[in-house]
Amino acid sequence: MERETVFKRRLARHYDELxxxxxxxxxxxxxxxxxxxxxxxxxxxxxxxxxxxLDKKREExxxxxxxxxMVGMMMYTDAFAGTLKGVKEKLDYIEECGVRCLHxxxxxxxxxxxxxxxxxxxxxxxxxxxxxxxEDLKDLAEECHRRTISVCLDFxxxxxxxxxxxxxxARAGEKEYQDRYFFFxxxxxxxxxxxxxxxxxxxxxxxNFTWLEDAKKYVMTTFYPYQWDLNYRNPVVxxxxxxxxxxxxxxxxxxxxxxxxxxxxxxxxxxxxNLPQVHTLVRMIRMICEIVCPAVLLLGEVVMEPAxxxxxxGTVEKPECHMLYNxxxxxxxxxxxxxxxxxxxxxxxxxxxxxxxxYVFLNYLRCHDDIGWGLEYDWLRKENMEEVPHKRFxxxxxxxxxxxxxxxxxxxxxxxxxxDARLCGTTASLCGLEGALETGNQxxxxxxxxxxxxxxxxxxxxxxxxMLYSGDEIGQLxxxxxxxxxxxxxxxxxxxxxxxxxxxxxxxxxxxxxxxxLFSGIRRxxxxxxxxxxxxxxxxxxxxxxxxxxxxxxxxxxxxxxxAAIFNFSGEEKTAYINxxxxxxxxxSEEDLEGVNVPMGPYGARWMLxxxxx
Length: 614
Ligand code: GLC
Prior knowledge:
Blueprint: H1 2-25, H2 30-46, H3 49-59, E1 72-75, H4 77-81, H5 84-89, H6 91-96, E2 101-104, E3 108-109, E4 123-127, H7 134-146, E5 150-155, E6 159-161, H8 165-171, H9 175-178, E7 183-184, H10 188-196, E8 209-212, E9 217-220, E10 227-229, H11 235-249, E11 255-258, H12 276-292, E12 297-300, H13 306-309, E13 323-325, H14 327-339, H15 343-353, E14 360-364, H16 377-381, H17 387-398, E15 410-415, E16 420-424, H18 427-431, H19 433-439, H20 442-461, E17 465-469, H21 502-505, H22 514-531, E18 540-544, E19 551-558, E20 561-568, E21 574-586, E22 591-600, E23 605-610
Parallel strand pairs: 1-2, 1-17, 2-5, 5-11, 11-12, 12-13, 13-14, 14-17
Antiparallel strand pairs: 3-4, 6-10, 7-9, 8-9, 15-16, 18-19, 19-20, 20-23, 21-22, 21-23
The chain binds alpha-D-glucopyranose.
Alpha-D-glucopyranose binds near residues 156, 259, 260 and 301.
């Protein structure tokens, strides 16, 4: 009885807005709306008691994920431990890494080949057999909760695999299922779309449509030809997908990563990205979760420039995503590594620091995808860097072609005619560790390790949630074995999605090894971070001049606590000519220093806490 009231109370809070948005999007959709509400009620009824307790707890503590002890880690289940059961067995290690949010890469059913690393889902209700079962997922989530670790899972809602039941039936000619996708008899309309709709994978999957020889139709495929775009103009698609999402939430998933969200609404004559209807859909999903499973957070995957990203937070009255990726900062970090000039990153920090402090960003150095060079070129032009030659430089630098560069990355979707390319590689390989080991260059090895540590320190200085990529904590290098697998060979993103090396991880306790230095360095950062309120989102953050183009200083302040975080993006010794009077304790080197003329080692990082005057 109590349960019914809770659902009704939550529904009542959002009912008018939800109905209004739904019926505006789906004209005359009142019947479908009622069905949606019924399905929500059913999912609410099915939600188990422990999760309901979590709902209540988190509703009473809406900021639960905004604390400074939040650290995320993303991983492929099979690469890390083979199966979901395997991951459960390895939770001690994950805990030892200080992880409080575990992002498991897509693990729902997908074909053996043509699966885009799990992003081509063929059944949203089933776990991929080789990884386990829904029961295993639920079991793992439960054990994670016991250890206060949240679980994040992708919700790939823009498309299905061509092997999804809907796609099969559509291909076989069933009109009802064709209407769940974008089907066309000839190329007339697709040609019109192509005029305004850019390409996601211009080299590996050119065009936005695929000809189906057997069905004699074109189908919209924004990503790969085997990923068919779902048509959210059809309320059946929305209702069914929402139901799949709620089902995942009921397995104990805490964070839903809404994959490729800017793409979910298409309109002729537009770029088919970030359209207003996308925001309506996300807002509806947010409300639906708040009604059925308020413990659940939405993490939007919006790989766009800041002006496009921020609207996905919605407004204070009408929030959309709880969290978004800090993607431009990530790309700017690597630009800074290559150029040794911090001006763009400083500018990017000023932009980010000017945003409302309620916004929660997920900070990362790299993820399972490529690094795209979505930098602020208008701004860079003032520094005499033009887009095309600069991208070329970045590609050369990170593939080790640039004189003196030890970075070992691989290009992704490179277009030789435009010189445009994206980049793949693990953090350690991009920092030069692989190159240094290859050439046996001791000094280069030291610098690579320092650079890797410095970047992690920088990431952890930012407000929001730091997200580690599994393996980066022990400096794992690129894995080239994907080249021998025909299902993967064409997609260089697999170079940084390699198997986790447990034998290397074992070296984290052997003093002096690269693994030990990186692992304990990251642990130390996490421990300091979680103890100091100045790392909370509520802190005021600003940049400070350092008088050196390679040195960046961020100042964090909260309730009288002040931290000067300084980073040297060059391999030379430097001095940070800051002017932040007072005596500080550098929490990383454990030295006392004045807040002026701070000496910095090659790729050095400092976290200087102002000593309170007595
Ligand atoms: C997202 C994923 C990426 C995938 C794409 C298509 O961008 O991060 O890996 O290829 O969606 O689903």
